[in-house]
Design goal:
Distance between the termini: 32 Å
Number of helices: 20
CATH superfamily of one domain: Isoleucyl-tRNA Synthetase, Domain 1
CATH topology of one domain: Isoleucyl-tRNA Synthetase, Domain 1
Largest sheet: 5 strands, parallel
Helix content: 40-55%
Shape: globular
Amino acid sequence: MNIFDLYLEKIKKILLDLSKDSNLVLPENLDGITVETPPQKFDSDISTNVAMFLSKINNKSPSELSEILIEKIKKQDELIENIVFAKPGFINITFKPIFWTKFVEEIINNSKTFGVNQKEKKNNYLIEFVSANPTGPLHVGHCRGAILGDVIANVLLFNNHKVTKEYYVNDYGNQIINFTKSVYFRIREIIFKEPFPSENDDLYPGDYLIDFAQNIIDSNKKVDFSDFEKNTDLLTTASVVEALKLIKKNLKSLGINHDNFVSEKELVKNQEVEGVINYLQKNKFVYKGKIKAPAGEDEKNWVSRDQLLFKSTDFGDDKDRALQKSDGAWTYFASDVAYHKNKLDRKFDFLINILGADHAGYIKRISSSVEALSGSKSKLLCKVSQLVKLIKDKKPFKMSKRKGDYITVDDLINEVGKDATRFIMLNRSSDAELDFDFDNVIEKSKDNPLYYVQYCYARISSVFRHIDQDLDTEIKVDKYDFNYTRDEIDILKKISEWPKCINLSSNKLEPHRIPTYLYELASLFHSYWNLGKDNPEKRFINDQKKISTDKLVFLKAISNVIKSGMDIVGVSAPKKM
RNA sequence: GCGCUUGUAGCUCAACUGGAUAGAGCGCCUGACUUCGGAUCAGGAGGUUCUGGGUUCGACUCCUAGCAGGCGCACCA
């Protein structure tokens, strides 16, 4: 139950009734009317801007309008205790305690589905995320986008949408050739005792390649590795397999699980790139031409040549984009267009791409291609995850592949743990850069918002332990007839915002709202808990080691929401810490 | 130079897709411990929301012109 939607509908109905009697003029569109929680200092439960919204068109002041509205609303609803006008034009409603009792009953009876936006149209999503090059282990830089994508998928799933999680494997192109050569040199190092050519900047120097090399040697005992050219295919495939094994292991340790891995090489092999380019050519989106040098570029260094171009300028891009390299191979962009055609052919309602900040400039051209292919840009939603600034010893920590000086997902999980990594990476809006202070996260774990929320759940569990119940067992209540106090209603109000939090997180693809929400809820709970020190009435368990039913279901409602939220974020909710 | 993005308390960040007197944490100051588990809580100080204009009953939010940081800008991926 979403009480804000409920009252929004009620108010709209009243407005329509009033306009029928020609007491009220309504604009065509009523979308600007909102029902929301007022700031805490206003001592009421929900609030609406309807009087301000209609003030101008009716040529009446909000206070005049509110008189009529207040009367109507009050007459229709016996659950309202108080309804008042508040400057500059809000109508504030306070409910009787019975309203909140019914609300709790609703939650307890629908513990699994509370928060789900039931009325929303259910869509079929494809979300592509991580898609890191299969050339080595994931590092911290990949983490944020990975977690962002995973949690967006979780929110959508929670909201009853269908979601397919996909990883695009860039196993085609120069990088893969260089990567394979690097593995080959490691193989030679092992077999022929030749030193690795570490001065070659095109090669991947990381030590993990030694393991790859050893694994490839072990599983290809009969192969003669003295000649690279003879074994190129085998080496390429085997190297990518090794890298993917490592990446999948990293993803698993982060709690991430993709449904599909789509290979770029396969797309090229299946002629899907030719297919999509022919299709675009027929529709006049592809031509042979030259690209101009960028404004900042020195003309002398610019080599202009004819090449196959996609007309992304038709869709607002700065310049048209190359599809084919001079050696005839497809560009990364070309096969990515094919990949997006492939996605479109699978008939999803929406495609979501999670990109790193360094790829943000790429959005325009890929969305242009989707527009050209489908006639609709809105199908593709791109979400950029900004950089993570690592801080170690109070100083920014720069990663350098050359020096082998970078922090891998393994390092992160070993030092910080999966739960804290997920919670902190998600805690901020993905649009903003994020400071990740190692020393802070590792040493002073009590300052970590994750523990603050988990502690709330653990405290609730401890109450249930004291009365020999398990938090997970269902509660049966014969009659809901309680009288919650304002302290308790403040928490219930927060809980009533949970469906809204889910709504915003899923519709705006902004899952950082969930940790923020959980923190706020936990904070209210901790405050309430401490009231019990001075006031025995506020304690959950009384002198006879019993708990009253109202408090029992109250706790159950809170823990329900915390658990749902933690599940979506993908972190544990321990009963003991 | 162009594009994208960010700018909110000393620091790190929220702010319900335009609402009320802009909120948290850290840090600083004061208080609550033989704890229904203190990994907690209560209180205090701290703001021209980068700047100038505009739209609006109402702007951190939208438009516009700047300033500052980040990222990107060839056939890399």
